[in-house]
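Supplementary Text 2. Reproducibility record for the structural model of the 190-residue chain.

All settings were left at their defaults, and a single model was retained for analysis rather than an ensemble. We include the record here because the model underlies the residue-level annotations in Supplementary Table 4.
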Amino acid sequence: MFEEYYGEPDPVKRKAILDEYIPEERTADSEGSDPEGGGAVPEQIKKLFDLRYKCNKKGGYDDRFLGAWLDLKLAAEGPISRMAKKRIEKQVRSAVHVLCLDRRDEFSGDVLYREMCHLATVYISSCTQDSRYTGVFWGLGKISDEKLQSRLCTDLENFAEGLSRFPEAGEDTSILRKAVADTEERKIRS
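Retained model, structure tokens:
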């Protein structure tokens, strides 16, 4: 179930997988019933799904985590002036909270790590499908696969390195930084 769930980028299909393997009535009494010994792991996964995705008017889902990722990316890679420092630090704290990285008492590290790996995979997939990201000269041409791989690696490394500029969120972003590095290794470099 976990491989199927974390391998699926589409939120509607992810919800169907959750509903199939973790019915609503089972999550209420799932303490200690997880076959891998995780106890409340199915309940945590379901709760994280509900925090990550918000139903939109078209019947689909909006990915709040991807929005928080982009907020963190802007903060991590942008210049920090003295005048904007407090605003950017507040933006980082808010994004960390949306990503649930500051809720380690609520979610196990493994559940957060897997969700952050999935988020990094969704980001990579979005980049490779975006003609502006893969294009050259205003989208009239397309860069080579080697250049795309290099661009993605540089992008992810700058993101992970930029997060270290915020020491107050250092421990909270450690799971995200590890997930980004591991996902980059698995998805791009292999």
